[in-house]
Amino acid sequence: MSASPSVTAKTAEAYDVVVVGAGFAGMYMLHRLRGQGMTARVFEQGSGVGGTWYWNRYPGARCDVESMQYSYSFSEELQQEWDWSERYAPQPEILKYANHVADRFNLRSDIQFDTRVETAAFDEATSLWSVTTSDGKTVSAKFVVLATGCLSNARKPDIKGLDRFEGKVYHTGHWPHEEVDFTGLRVGVIGTGSSGIQSVPVIAEQASHLTVFQRTAQFSIPARNAGLTDEERNWFRTNYPEVRRFAREEAKNGIYTEVPDRGALDDGDNERRDRYEARWQRGGLTFMSVYNNLALDKAANDTAANFVRGKIAEIVKDSDTAKRLTPASYPIGTKRICIDTDYFATFNRPNVTLVDIKAHPIEEITQTAVRSGGEEYELDALVLATGFDAMTGSVARIDIRGRDGRTLNDKWSAGPRTYLGLMSAGFPNLFVITGPGSPSVLSNMIVSIEQHVDWITDCLSYMRDNGLDTMEAATDAEDKWVAHVNEVAYTTLFPQADSWYMGANVPGKPRIFMPYIGGVGPYRQICNDVAARGYEGFVMEGAKAARKSVAS
Ligand code: NA7
Protein backbone atom coordinates (compact mmCIF):
# COMPACT_ATOMS: atom_id res chain seq x y z
CA MET A 1 0.00 0.00 0.00
CA SER A 2 1.68 3.19 -1.03
CA ALA A 3 0.51 5.05 2.09
CA SER A 4 2.58 2.75 4.26
CA PRO A 5 6.02 2.47 2.70
CA SER A 6 7.42 1.88 6.16
CA VAL A 7 5.62 -1.46 6.27
CA THR A 8 6.71 -2.75 2.91
CA ALA A 9 10.20 -1.34 2.94
CA LYS A 10 11.28 -2.44 6.41
CA THR A 11 11.92 -6.10 5.69
CA ALA A 12 11.09 -8.66 3.03
CA GLU A 13 8.74 -10.22 5.57
CA ALA A 14 6.44 -7.23 5.86
CA TYR A 15 3.25 -6.95 3.87
CA ASP A 16 0.35 -4.62 3.59
CA VAL A 17 -2.00 -7.54 4.12
CA VAL A 18 -1.70 -11.09 5.38
CA VAL A 19 -4.56 -13.25 4.15
CA VAL A 20 -5.27 -16.49 6.00
CA GLY A 21 -6.60 -19.18 3.67
CA ALA A 22 -6.55 -19.77 -0.09
CA GLY A 23 -10.11 -20.90 -0.65
CA PHE A 24 -12.49 -18.89 -2.78
CA ALA A 25 -12.36 -15.95 -0.35
CA GLY A 26 -8.57 -15.83 0.02
CA MET A 27 -7.94 -16.16 -3.71
CA TYR A 28 -10.27 -13.35 -4.67
CA MET A 29 -8.95 -11.18 -1.83
CA LEU A 30 -5.42 -11.60 -3.15
CA HIS A 31 -6.53 -10.76 -6.66
CA ARG A 32 -8.22 -7.54 -5.55
CA LEU A 33 -5.36 -6.45 -3.30
CA ARG A 34 -2.92 -6.84 -6.14
CA GLY A 35 -5.19 -4.77 -8.31
CA GLN A 36 -4.84 -1.96 -5.76
CA GLY A 37 -1.07 -2.24 -5.78
CA MET A 38 -0.95 -3.66 -2.27
CA THR A 39 1.46 -6.33 -1.15
CA ALA A 40 -0.11 -9.46 0.24
CA ARG A 41 0.92 -12.87 1.49
CA VAL A 42 -1.58 -15.69 1.66
CA PHE A 43 -0.93 -18.58 4.04
CA GLU A 44 -2.75 -21.81 3.34
CA GLN A 45 -2.55 -24.92 5.47
CA GLY A 46 -3.40 -27.26 2.58
CA SER A 47 -1.05 -28.12 -0.25
CA GLY A 48 -3.31 -26.51 -2.81
CA VAL A 49 -6.01 -23.90 -3.31
CA GLY A 50 -9.74 -24.51 -2.89
CA GLY A 51 -10.29 -24.45 0.89
CA THR A 52 -13.40 -26.46 1.75
CA TRP A 53 -13.25 -28.06 -1.68
CA TYR A 54 -9.66 -29.09 -1.13
CA TRP A 55 -10.54 -31.03 2.04
CA ASN A 56 -14.05 -32.37 1.42
CA ARG A 57 -13.21 -35.14 -1.06
CA TYR A 58 -15.66 -37.71 0.26
CA PRO A 59 -17.61 -39.91 -2.17
CA GLY A 60 -20.54 -38.03 -3.68
CA ALA A 61 -19.32 -34.57 -2.54
CA ARG A 62 -21.04 -31.84 -4.51
CA CYS A 63 -22.05 -28.27 -4.03
CA ASP A 64 -25.74 -27.80 -3.21
CA VAL A 65 -25.86 -24.51 -5.14
CA GLU A 66 -26.08 -24.94 -8.90
CA SER A 67 -22.72 -24.71 -10.64
CA MET A 68 -23.65 -21.87 -13.02
CA GLN A 69 -24.34 -19.79 -9.91
CA TYR A 70 -21.69 -21.17 -7.54
CA SER A 71 -18.93 -19.45 -9.46
CA TYR A 72 -17.09 -16.15 -9.43
CA SER A 73 -18.74 -13.22 -11.17
CA PHE A 74 -15.84 -10.78 -10.98
CA SER A 75 -14.39 -11.71 -14.34
CA GLU A 76 -16.61 -11.73 -17.40
CA GLU A 77 -14.00 -13.74 -19.31
CA LEU A 78 -13.85 -16.35 -16.57
CA GLN A 79 -17.60 -16.83 -16.37
CA GLN A 80 -17.86 -17.05 -20.14
CA GLU A 81 -14.99 -19.47 -20.67
CA TRP A 82 -15.46 -22.01 -17.90
CA ASP A 83 -17.59 -25.05 -18.80
CA TRP A 84 -19.43 -26.60 -15.88
CA SER A 85 -20.39 -30.15 -16.77
CA GLU A 86 -23.29 -30.77 -14.40
CA ARG A 87 -26.14 -28.93 -12.74
CA TYR A 88 -24.42 -29.46 -9.37
CA ALA A 89 -20.68 -29.51 -9.70
CA PRO A 90 -18.91 -32.48 -8.16
CA GLN A 91 -16.06 -31.67 -5.78
CA PRO A 92 -13.24 -32.60 -8.22
CA GLU A 93 -14.62 -30.16 -10.77
CA ILE A 94 -14.92 -27.33 -8.24
CA LEU A 95 -11.34 -27.99 -7.20
CA LYS A 96 -10.29 -27.92 -10.85
CA TYR A 97 -12.05 -24.58 -11.21
CA ALA A 98 -10.25 -23.21 -8.13
CA ASN A 99 -6.94 -24.30 -9.64
CA HIS A 100 -7.88 -22.78 -12.97
CA VAL A 101 -8.59 -19.46 -11.24
CA ALA A 102 -5.27 -19.63 -9.38
CA ASP A 103 -3.43 -20.18 -12.66
CA ARG A 104 -5.42 -17.78 -14.77
CA PHE A 105 -4.87 -14.90 -12.36
CA ASN A 106 -1.35 -16.04 -11.54
CA LEU A 107 -2.11 -16.20 -7.82
CA ARG A 108 0.25 -18.94 -6.63
CA SER A 109 3.37 -16.81 -6.34
CA ASP A 110 1.86 -14.97 -3.36
CA ILE A 111 0.43 -18.05 -1.66
CA GLN A 112 2.52 -20.09 0.75
CA PHE A 113 1.06 -23.59 0.98
CA ASP A 114 1.41 -26.18 3.75
CA THR A 115 1.63 -23.36 6.25
CA ARG A 116 -0.72 -22.71 9.13
CA VAL A 117 -1.07 -19.32 10.72
CA GLU A 118 -0.62 -19.98 14.42
CA THR A 119 -0.71 -16.57 16.06
CA ALA A 120 -1.53 -13.00 15.15
CA ALA A 121 -0.84 -10.20 17.61
CA PHE A 122 -1.55 -6.49 17.23
CA ASP A 123 1.20 -4.15 18.37
CA GLU A 124 -0.40 -0.95 19.60
CA ALA A 125 2.86 1.00 19.37
CA THR A 126 3.37 0.36 15.66
CA SER A 127 -0.21 -0.49 14.67
CA LEU A 128 1.10 -3.58 12.94
CA TRP A 129 0.07 -7.19 13.18
CA SER A 130 2.75 -9.74 13.88
CA VAL A 131 1.84 -13.10 12.39
CA THR A 132 3.61 -16.37 13.17
CA THR A 133 3.30 -19.43 10.99
CA SER A 134 3.86 -23.16 11.37
CA ASP A 135 7.18 -22.96 9.52
CA GLY A 136 8.56 -20.94 12.43
CA LYS A 137 8.50 -17.57 10.67
CA THR A 138 7.10 -14.23 11.74
CA VAL A 139 5.85 -11.66 9.29
CA SER A 140 4.31 -8.29 9.91
CA ALA A 141 1.36 -6.74 8.19
CA LYS A 142 -0.75 -3.68 8.45
CA PHE A 143 -3.92 -5.69 7.93
CA VAL A 144 -4.93 -9.29 8.48
CA VAL A 145 -7.83 -10.82 6.57
CA LEU A 146 -9.23 -14.10 7.89
CA ALA A 147 -10.44 -16.02 4.85
CA THR A 148 -10.53 -19.15 6.94
CA GLY A 149 -13.88 -20.51 5.79
CA CYS A 150 -17.00 -21.39 7.71
CA LEU A 151 -16.98 -25.14 7.26
CA SER A 152 -13.29 -25.86 7.44
CA ASN A 153 -12.66 -27.16 10.92
CA ALA A 154 -13.74 -30.81 10.74
CA ARG A 155 -15.02 -32.01 14.09
CA LYS A 156 -14.35 -35.48 15.37
CA PRO A 157 -17.09 -36.61 17.73
CA ASP A 158 -16.22 -37.31 21.31
CA ILE A 159 -17.28 -40.96 21.34
CA LYS A 160 -15.81 -43.38 23.84
CA GLY A 161 -13.37 -45.80 22.25
CA LEU A 162 -13.11 -44.06 18.86
CA ASP A 163 -9.31 -44.12 19.00
CA ARG A 164 -9.35 -47.82 19.72
CA PHE A 165 -11.12 -48.79 16.49
CA GLU A 166 -8.73 -50.91 14.42
CA GLY A 167 -10.29 -50.33 11.00
CA LYS A 168 -9.75 -47.19 8.97
CA VAL A 169 -11.51 -44.05 10.22
CA TYR A 170 -12.28 -41.22 7.79
CA HIS A 171 -13.80 -37.79 8.31
CA THR A 172 -15.76 -36.44 5.34
CA GLY A 173 -14.27 -32.99 5.93
CA HIS A 174 -10.70 -34.28 5.92
CA TRP A 175 -10.81 -36.99 3.29
CA PRO A 176 -7.58 -38.60 2.02
CA HIS A 177 -6.24 -37.66 -1.38
CA GLU A 178 -5.80 -41.27 -2.40
CA GLU A 179 -8.84 -43.12 -3.64
CA VAL A 180 -10.72 -44.91 -0.87
CA ASP A 181 -12.23 -48.20 -1.98
CA PHE A 182 -14.90 -49.68 0.26
CA THR A 183 -15.53 -52.69 -1.96
CA GLY A 184 -16.34 -55.73 0.10
CA LEU A 185 -16.08 -53.88 3.41
CA ARG A 186 -18.55 -53.44 6.22
CA VAL A 187 -18.74 -49.67 6.56
CA GLY A 188 -20.35 -47.47 9.21
CA VAL A 189 -21.32 -43.84 8.60
CA ILE A 190 -21.96 -41.65 11.64
CA GLY A 191 -23.86 -38.47 10.80
CA THR A 192 -26.67 -37.64 8.40
CA GLY A 193 -26.13 -33.99 7.49
CA SER A 194 -25.33 -32.99 3.89
CA SER A 195 -22.05 -34.91 3.87
CA GLY A 196 -23.59 -38.12 5.19
CA ILE A 197 -26.58 -37.81 2.88
CA GLN A 198 -24.37 -37.29 -0.17
CA SER A 199 -21.93 -40.07 0.65
CA VAL A 200 -24.32 -42.79 1.89
CA PRO A 201 -25.77 -43.75 -1.55
CA VAL A 202 -22.28 -43.93 -3.10
CA ILE A 203 -20.73 -45.92 -0.26
CA ALA A 204 -23.74 -48.28 -0.24
CA GLU A 205 -22.93 -49.26 -3.81
CA GLN A 206 -19.41 -50.33 -2.87
CA ALA A 207 -19.68 -51.68 0.64
CA SER A 208 -20.68 -55.25 1.41
CA HIS A 209 -22.78 -53.74 4.18
CA LEU A 210 -23.41 -50.16 5.24
CA THR A 211 -24.67 -49.18 8.68
CA VAL A 212 -25.86 -45.59 8.98
CA PHE A 213 -25.87 -44.17 12.51
CA GLN A 214 -28.42 -41.36 12.60
CA ARG A 215 -28.80 -38.97 15.51
CA THR A 216 -31.28 -36.59 13.88
CA ALA A 217 -33.34 -37.38 10.79
CA GLN A 218 -32.88 -34.78 8.04
CA PHE A 219 -35.13 -33.21 5.47
CA SER A 220 -33.67 -33.79 2.04
CA ILE A 221 -34.82 -32.80 -1.44
CA PRO A 222 -33.75 -34.64 -4.60
CA ALA A 223 -30.98 -32.81 -6.43
CA ARG A 224 -32.10 -34.05 -9.87
CA ASN A 225 -28.54 -33.65 -10.90
CA ALA A 226 -27.86 -34.02 -14.62
CA GLY A 227 -25.38 -33.01 -17.26
CA LEU A 228 -25.72 -29.39 -18.36
CA THR A 229 -26.60 -28.89 -21.99
CA ASP A 230 -24.99 -26.22 -24.15
CA GLU A 231 -28.35 -24.53 -24.24
CA GLU A 232 -28.52 -24.30 -20.44
CA ARG A 233 -24.96 -23.03 -20.16
CA ASN A 234 -25.57 -20.49 -22.89
CA TRP A 235 -28.74 -19.27 -21.23
CA PHE A 236 -26.76 -18.41 -18.12
CA ARG A 237 -23.91 -16.89 -20.10
CA THR A 238 -26.26 -14.63 -21.98
CA ASN A 239 -28.24 -13.73 -18.89
CA TYR A 240 -25.39 -13.40 -16.41
CA PRO A 241 -25.79 -9.65 -15.93
CA GLU A 242 -29.34 -10.12 -14.65
CA VAL A 243 -28.68 -13.44 -12.89
CA ARG A 244 -25.79 -11.97 -10.91
CA ARG A 245 -27.61 -8.71 -10.19
CA PHE A 246 -30.62 -10.56 -8.90
CA ALA A 247 -28.46 -12.88 -6.77
CA ARG A 248 -26.67 -9.93 -5.19
CA GLU A 249 -29.54 -7.54 -4.69
CA GLU A 250 -32.85 -9.35 -4.61
CA ALA A 251 -32.45 -12.96 -3.65
CA LYS A 252 -32.34 -13.45 0.09
CA ASN A 253 -29.83 -16.25 -0.23
CA GLY A 254 -27.83 -15.11 -3.24
CA ILE A 255 -29.43 -17.60 -5.61
CA TYR A 256 -31.30 -16.62 -8.77
CA THR A 257 -34.78 -18.10 -8.68
CA GLU A 258 -38.42 -17.07 -8.79
CA VAL A 259 -39.57 -14.86 -5.94
CA PRO A 260 -42.59 -16.38 -4.18
CA ASP A 261 -45.62 -14.14 -4.32
CA ARG A 262 -47.64 -15.72 -1.53
CA GLY A 263 -47.61 -17.63 1.71
CA ALA A 264 -48.27 -21.35 2.02
CA LEU A 265 -51.66 -20.87 3.65
CA ASP A 266 -52.86 -18.61 0.84
CA ASP A 267 -53.31 -21.67 -1.38
CA GLY A 268 -55.81 -24.47 -0.97
CA ASP A 269 -54.59 -28.03 -0.26
CA ASN A 270 -54.57 -29.18 -3.88
CA GLU A 271 -52.85 -26.13 -5.29
CA ARG A 272 -50.27 -26.20 -2.52
CA ARG A 273 -49.57 -29.85 -3.10
CA ASP A 274 -49.15 -29.23 -6.83
CA ARG A 275 -46.66 -26.47 -6.18
CA TYR A 276 -44.60 -28.59 -3.79
CA GLU A 277 -44.75 -31.48 -6.23
CA ALA A 278 -43.49 -29.29 -9.08
CA ARG A 279 -40.53 -28.10 -6.97
CA TRP A 280 -39.83 -31.62 -5.74
CA GLN A 281 -39.68 -32.72 -9.37
CA ARG A 282 -37.42 -29.82 -10.26
CA GLY A 283 -35.23 -30.57 -7.24
CA GLY A 284 -32.73 -28.48 -5.35
CA LEU A 285 -32.50 -25.88 -2.60
CA THR A 286 -35.17 -23.65 -4.08
CA PHE A 287 -37.77 -26.03 -2.69
CA MET A 288 -37.84 -23.67 0.28
CA SER A 289 -38.77 -20.72 -1.95
CA VAL A 290 -42.11 -22.10 -3.06
CA TYR A 291 -43.74 -19.78 -0.54
CA ASN A 292 -42.55 -16.65 1.18
CA ASN A 293 -43.34 -17.60 4.75
CA LEU A 294 -41.89 -21.10 5.20
CA ALA A 295 -39.10 -19.79 7.42
CA LEU A 296 -41.43 -17.55 9.39
CA ASP A 297 -44.69 -19.25 10.15
CA LYS A 298 -44.84 -22.69 11.77
CA ALA A 299 -48.23 -23.57 10.29
CA ALA A 300 -46.94 -22.69 6.81
CA ASN A 301 -43.72 -24.57 7.45
CA ASP A 302 -45.68 -27.64 8.55
CA THR A 303 -47.26 -27.90 5.10
CA ALA A 304 -43.83 -28.18 3.44
CA ALA A 305 -42.49 -30.48 6.16
CA ASN A 306 -45.51 -32.77 5.83
CA PHE A 307 -45.12 -32.90 2.08
CA VAL A 308 -41.52 -34.10 2.42
CA ARG A 309 -42.49 -36.52 5.19
CA GLY A 310 -45.07 -37.98 2.81
CA LYS A 311 -42.37 -38.43 0.15
CA ILE A 312 -40.13 -40.29 2.59
CA ALA A 313 -43.01 -42.62 3.43
CA GLU A 314 -43.60 -43.23 -0.29
CA ILE A 315 -39.95 -43.91 -1.12
CA VAL A 316 -38.83 -46.04 1.83
CA LYS A 317 -40.44 -49.47 1.71
CA ASP A 318 -39.94 -50.59 5.29
CA SER A 319 -42.37 -48.51 7.33
CA ASP A 320 -40.30 -48.69 10.50
CA THR A 321 -37.20 -47.44 8.68
CA ALA A 322 -39.26 -44.74 6.97
CA LYS A 323 -40.50 -43.59 10.36
CA ARG A 324 -37.00 -43.34 11.74
CA LEU A 325 -35.88 -41.39 8.66
CA THR A 326 -38.70 -38.89 9.10
CA PRO A 327 -37.65 -35.63 10.75
CA ALA A 328 -39.94 -34.60 13.57
CA SER A 329 -38.05 -32.38 15.97
CA TYR A 330 -37.55 -29.11 14.06
CA PRO A 331 -39.17 -27.07 11.26
CA ILE A 332 -38.06 -27.87 7.72
CA GLY A 333 -35.19 -25.68 6.57
CA THR A 334 -34.07 -24.63 10.03
CA LYS A 335 -31.23 -27.10 9.84
CA ARG A 336 -29.53 -26.67 6.46
CA ILE A 337 -31.75 -28.55 4.07
CA CYS A 338 -29.97 -31.38 2.24
CA ILE A 339 -29.94 -32.08 -1.47
CA ASP A 340 -29.52 -35.73 -2.35
CA THR A 341 -29.31 -38.32 -5.06
CA ASP A 342 -31.25 -41.42 -4.01
CA TYR A 343 -30.62 -40.99 -0.30
CA PHE A 344 -33.94 -42.30 0.99
CA ALA A 345 -34.13 -45.05 -1.66
CA THR A 346 -30.74 -46.31 -0.49
CA PHE A 347 -32.46 -47.64 2.64
CA ASN A 348 -34.39 -50.07 0.43
CA ARG A 349 -31.14 -51.86 -0.37
CA PRO A 350 -30.61 -55.16 1.42
CA ASN A 351 -27.06 -54.17 2.39
CA VAL A 352 -28.04 -50.98 4.28
CA THR A 353 -29.11 -50.71 7.92
CA LEU A 354 -30.28 -47.59 9.74
CA VAL A 355 -29.48 -47.29 13.44
CA ASP A 356 -31.26 -44.62 15.47
CA ILE A 357 -28.64 -43.34 17.87
CA LYS A 358 -30.97 -40.76 19.35
CA ALA A 359 -33.07 -43.60 20.73
CA HIS A 360 -30.01 -45.75 21.38
CA PRO A 361 -26.93 -43.54 21.77
CA ILE A 362 -23.59 -45.04 20.85
CA GLU A 363 -22.25 -46.59 24.05
CA GLU A 364 -18.77 -47.10 22.78
CA ILE A 365 -16.62 -48.04 19.86
CA THR A 366 -14.62 -51.21 20.28
CA GLN A 367 -11.67 -52.45 18.20
CA THR A 368 -14.07 -53.88 15.63
CA ALA A 369 -17.55 -52.50 16.19
CA VAL A 370 -19.85 -49.67 17.16
CA ARG A 371 -22.05 -50.59 20.13
CA SER A 372 -25.46 -48.96 20.39
CA GLY A 373 -28.56 -50.10 22.25
CA GLY A 374 -26.68 -53.18 23.42
CA GLU A 375 -26.06 -54.29 19.80
CA GLU A 376 -22.59 -54.60 18.30
CA TYR A 377 -22.32 -53.47 14.69
CA GLU A 378 -19.15 -55.09 13.36
CA LEU A 379 -17.31 -52.81 10.93
CA ASP A 380 -14.17 -52.72 8.81
CA ALA A 381 -14.22 -48.96 8.24
CA LEU A 382 -15.86 -45.97 9.84
CA VAL A 383 -16.84 -42.70 8.16
CA LEU A 384 -17.40 -39.70 10.41
CA ALA A 385 -19.79 -37.34 8.65
CA THR A 386 -20.09 -35.37 11.86
CA GLY A 387 -19.62 -31.87 10.52
CA PHE A 388 -17.63 -28.87 11.57
CA ASP A 389 -17.03 -26.40 14.34
CA ALA A 390 -18.79 -24.04 11.96
CA MET A 391 -18.19 -20.33 11.39
CA THR A 392 -15.93 -19.72 14.36
CA GLY A 393 -13.92 -22.96 14.59
CA SER A 394 -11.12 -22.04 12.20
CA VAL A 395 -10.79 -18.55 13.60
CA ALA A 396 -10.62 -19.99 17.12
CA ARG A 397 -7.67 -22.20 16.19
CA ILE A 398 -5.51 -19.12 15.66
CA ASP A 399 -4.25 -17.35 18.76
CA ILE A 400 -5.39 -13.83 17.88
CA ARG A 401 -4.49 -11.01 20.25
CA GLY A 402 -5.81 -7.49 19.83
CA ARG A 403 -5.62 -4.42 22.06
CA ASP A 404 -4.30 -4.99 25.58
CA GLY A 405 -3.29 -8.51 24.55
CA ARG A 406 -6.89 -9.69 24.75
CA THR A 407 -7.56 -12.82 22.72
CA LEU A 408 -10.40 -13.09 20.27
CA ASN A 409 -11.33 -16.43 21.83
CA ASP A 410 -11.73 -14.71 25.17
CA LYS A 411 -13.82 -11.95 23.65
CA TRP A 412 -15.99 -14.49 21.84
CA SER A 413 -16.27 -16.91 24.75
CA ALA A 414 -19.99 -16.20 25.13
CA GLY A 415 -20.51 -16.20 21.35
CA PRO A 416 -19.00 -14.29 18.43
CA ARG A 417 -19.38 -10.50 18.47
CA THR A 418 -18.81 -8.53 15.30
CA TYR A 419 -19.91 -5.39 13.56
CA LEU A 420 -21.41 -6.41 10.20
CA GLY A 421 -19.62 -9.75 10.51
CA LEU A 422 -16.54 -7.93 9.24
CA MET A 423 -14.65 -6.72 12.30
CA SER A 424 -14.64 -7.15 16.05
CA ALA A 425 -14.06 -4.24 18.45
CA GLY A 426 -10.62 -4.35 20.05
CA PHE A 427 -9.04 -5.98 17.00
CA PRO A 428 -8.01 -3.15 14.69
CA ASN A 429 -7.26 -3.84 11.03
CA LEU A 430 -8.45 -7.43 11.34
CA PHE A 431 -11.18 -8.42 8.89
CA VAL A 432 -13.18 -11.62 8.67
CA ILE A 433 -14.66 -12.75 5.36
CA THR A 434 -18.16 -14.21 5.68
CA GLY A 435 -17.81 -14.10 9.44
CA PRO A 436 -20.52 -14.58 12.06
CA GLY A 437 -22.97 -11.70 11.87
CA SER A 438 -23.00 -11.71 8.06
CA PRO A 439 -25.27 -13.73 5.70
CA SER A 440 -22.45 -16.15 5.01
CA VAL A 441 -23.57 -19.78 5.24
CA LEU A 442 -27.21 -18.83 4.68
CA SER A 443 -26.28 -17.69 1.20
CA ASN A 444 -24.55 -18.72 -1.98
CA MET A 445 -21.09 -18.37 -0.45
CA ILE A 446 -19.43 -16.97 -3.55
CA VAL A 447 -21.90 -14.10 -3.73
CA SER A 448 -21.17 -13.25 -0.09
CA ILE A 449 -17.43 -13.71 -0.51
CA GLU A 450 -17.29 -11.33 -3.45
CA GLN A 451 -19.31 -8.74 -1.58
CA HIS A 452 -17.04 -8.86 1.47
CA VAL A 453 -13.84 -8.85 -0.54
CA ASP A 454 -15.00 -5.89 -2.62
CA TRP A 455 -16.10 -3.98 0.48
CA ILE A 456 -12.80 -4.63 2.27
CA THR A 457 -10.81 -3.64 -0.82
CA ASP A 458 -12.72 -0.38 -1.15
CA CYS A 459 -12.23 0.24 2.54
CA LEU A 460 -8.46 -0.27 2.37
CA SER A 461 -8.25 2.06 -0.62
CA TYR A 462 -10.25 4.65 1.28
CA MET A 463 -7.88 4.38 4.22
CA ARG A 464 -4.88 4.76 1.96
CA ASP A 465 -6.38 7.75 0.20
CA ASN A 466 -7.25 9.43 3.50
CA GLY A 467 -4.01 8.73 5.33
CA LEU A 468 -5.68 6.43 7.84
CA ASP A 469 -3.66 3.78 9.63
CA THR A 470 -6.14 1.91 11.75
CA MET A 471 -9.76 0.96 11.58
CA GLU A 472 -11.78 -0.74 14.23
CA ALA A 473 -15.38 -1.55 15.00
CA ALA A 474 -16.81 0.81 17.62
CA THR A 475 -18.15 -1.12 20.60
CA ASP A 476 -21.59 0.47 20.58
CA ALA A 477 -22.00 -0.12 16.82
CA GLU A 478 -21.01 -3.73 17.39
CA ASP A 479 -23.44 -4.11 20.28
CA LYS A 480 -26.25 -2.75 18.16
CA TRP A 481 -25.37 -5.04 15.28
CA VAL A 482 -25.20 -8.14 17.49
CA ALA A 483 -28.61 -7.23 18.92
CA HIS A 484 -30.00 -6.71 15.41
CA VAL A 485 -28.64 -10.05 14.14
CA ASN A 486 -30.22 -11.76 17.12
CA GLU A 487 -33.50 -9.92 16.80
CA VAL A 488 -33.88 -10.78 13.11
CA ALA A 489 -33.02 -14.43 13.79
CA TYR A 490 -35.78 -14.66 16.39
CA THR A 491 -38.39 -13.39 13.96
CA THR A 492 -37.82 -16.69 12.13
CA LEU A 493 -38.18 -20.36 12.99
CA PHE A 494 -34.42 -20.99 12.68
CA PRO A 495 -33.53 -20.80 16.37
CA GLN A 496 -35.96 -23.68 17.02
CA ALA A 497 -33.49 -26.22 15.64
CA ASP A 498 -30.38 -27.62 17.29
CA SER A 499 -28.29 -26.70 14.27
CA TRP A 500 -24.70 -25.81 13.61
CA TYR A 501 -25.99 -22.31 12.78
CA MET A 502 -26.72 -22.16 16.53
CA GLY A 503 -23.45 -23.82 17.53
CA ALA A 504 -25.58 -26.67 18.87
CA ASN A 505 -23.47 -29.43 17.30
CA VAL A 506 -20.43 -28.64 19.42
CA PRO A 507 -20.82 -29.52 23.10
CA GLY A 508 -20.19 -26.43 25.22
CA LYS A 509 -20.35 -23.95 22.33
CA PRO A 510 -22.55 -20.94 23.17
CA ARG A 511 -26.03 -21.10 21.62
CA ILE A 512 -26.14 -18.05 19.39
CA PHE A 513 -27.65 -17.88 15.93
CA MET A 514 -24.43 -16.93 14.14
CA PRO A 515 -25.25 -15.87 10.58
CA TYR A 516 -27.26 -12.77 9.66
CA ILE A 517 -30.63 -13.83 8.31
CA GLY A 518 -31.74 -10.44 6.98
CA GLY A 519 -30.84 -11.45 3.40
CA VAL A 520 -27.86 -10.70 1.18
CA GLY A 521 -29.56 -7.77 -0.60
CA PRO A 522 -30.50 -5.76 2.49
CA TYR A 523 -27.17 -6.67 4.09
CA ARG A 524 -25.24 -5.40 1.06
CA GLN A 525 -27.21 -2.18 1.21
CA ILE A 526 -26.39 -1.75 4.90
CA CYS A 527 -22.67 -2.28 4.21
CA ASN A 528 -22.74 0.15 1.29
CA ASP A 529 -24.56 2.77 3.36
CA VAL A 530 -22.06 2.40 6.19
CA ALA A 531 -19.21 2.98 3.72
CA ALA A 532 -20.99 5.90 2.06
CA ARG A 533 -21.34 7.58 5.44
CA GLY A 534 -17.56 7.48 5.96
CA TYR A 535 -17.54 4.00 7.53
CA GLU A 536 -20.05 4.82 10.17
CA GLY A 537 -19.69 2.71 13.28
CA PHE A 538 -15.99 2.21 12.73
CA VAL A 539 -13.26 4.21 14.39
CA MET A 540 -10.56 5.20 11.92
CA GLU A 541 -7.34 6.88 12.91
CA GLY A 542 -4.13 7.92 11.24
CA ALA A 543 -1.05 10.00 11.81
CA LYS A 544 -1.91 12.15 8.82
CA ALA A 545 -5.62 12.31 9.49
CA ALA A 546 -7.68 13.37 12.42
CA ARG A 547 -9.80 10.80 14.21
CA LYS A 548 -12.23 10.04 11.47
CA SER A 549 -15.38 8.35 12.50
CA VAL A 550 -17.33 7.31 15.49
CA ALA A 551 -20.22 5.14 16.40
CA SER A 552 -23.35 4.93 14.34
P1 NA7 B 1 -23.61 -31.35 9.59
O1 NA7 B 1 -24.68 -30.79 8.77
O2 NA7 B 1 -23.21 -30.64 10.83
O3 NA7 B 1 -24.03 -32.85 9.95
C1 NA7 B 1 -23.34 -33.59 10.91
C2 NA7 B 1 -24.10 -34.84 11.23
O4 NA7 B 1 -23.37 -35.58 12.20
C3 NA7 B 1 -25.47 -34.57 11.83
O5 NA7 B 1 -26.33 -35.58 11.41
C4 NA7 B 1 -25.19 -34.68 13.32
O6 NA7 B 1 -26.31 -35.01 14.07
C5 NA7 B 1 -24.19 -35.80 13.35
N1 NA7 B 1 -23.34 -35.78 14.53
C6 NA7 B 1 -22.54 -34.77 14.93
N2 NA7 B 1 -21.89 -35.11 16.06
C7 NA7 B 1 -22.31 -36.36 16.37
C8 NA7 B 1 -22.03 -37.25 17.44
N3 NA7 B 1 -21.18 -36.92 18.41
N4 NA7 B 1 -22.64 -38.45 17.44
C9 NA7 B 1 -23.50 -38.75 16.45
N5 NA7 B 1 -23.83 -37.97 15.43
C10 NA7 B 1 -23.23 -36.77 15.40
O7 NA7 B 1 -22.26 -31.53 8.74
P2 NA7 B 1 -22.09 -31.90 7.22
O8 NA7 B 1 -20.65 -32.10 6.97
O9 NA7 B 1 -23.00 -32.99 6.82
O10 NA7 B 1 -22.60 -30.63 6.45
C11 NA7 B 1 -22.13 -29.34 6.79
C12 NA7 B 1 -22.54 -28.35 5.75
O11 NA7 B 1 -21.74 -28.51 4.59
C13 NA7 B 1 -23.92 -28.49 5.22
O12 NA7 B 1 -24.90 -27.96 6.02
C14 NA7 B 1 -23.85 -27.79 3.88
O13 NA7 B 1 -23.94 -26.40 4.06
C15 NA7 B 1 -22.48 -28.15 3.43
P3 NA7 B 1 -27.26 -33.84 14.70
O14 NA7 B 1 -28.05 -33.34 13.53
O15 NA7 B 1 -26.33 -32.79 15.25
O16 NA7 B 1 -28.05 -34.51 15.72
Write structural notes for this entry.
With 552 residues, the protein is α/β, with parallel strands linked by helices. The protein has three domains: 5-153 and 390-551, 3-Layer(bba) Sandwich (FAD/NAD(P)-binding domain), CATH 3.50.50; 155-218 and 337-387, FAD/NAD(P)-binding domain (3-Layer(bba) Sandwich), CATH 3.50.50.60; 257-334, no CATH class. 32% of the residues lie in helices and 16% in strands. It is built from 16 helices and 20 strands. It has helices spanning 5-10, 24-35, 52-55, 76-81, 91-104, 194-206, 230-249, 269-282, 298-315, 319-325, 343-346, 393-396, 408-411, 445-465, 475-489, 520-532, and strands at residues 14-20, 40-43, 111-112, 117-123, 128-133, 138-146, 168-171, 186-190, 209-214, 220-222, 338-340, 352-356, 362-365, 369-372, 375-378, 381-384, 399-401, 430-432, 470-473, 538-541. Strands 1, 2, 3, 4, 5, 6, 17 and 18 form an eight-stranded mixed β-sheet that branches. The chain has a five-stranded parallel β-sheet with strand order 7-16-8-9-12. A three-stranded antiparallel β-sheet has the order 13-14-15, with no helix packed on it. α6 links the parallel β8 and β9. The chain is globular, with a radius of gyration of 24 Å. Residues 2-11 and 546-552 have low confidence and may be disordered. The structure holds ligand NA7. Ligand NA7 is lined by residues 151, 157, 159, 172-173, 190-196, 215-216, 336, 357, 385-387, 500, 505.
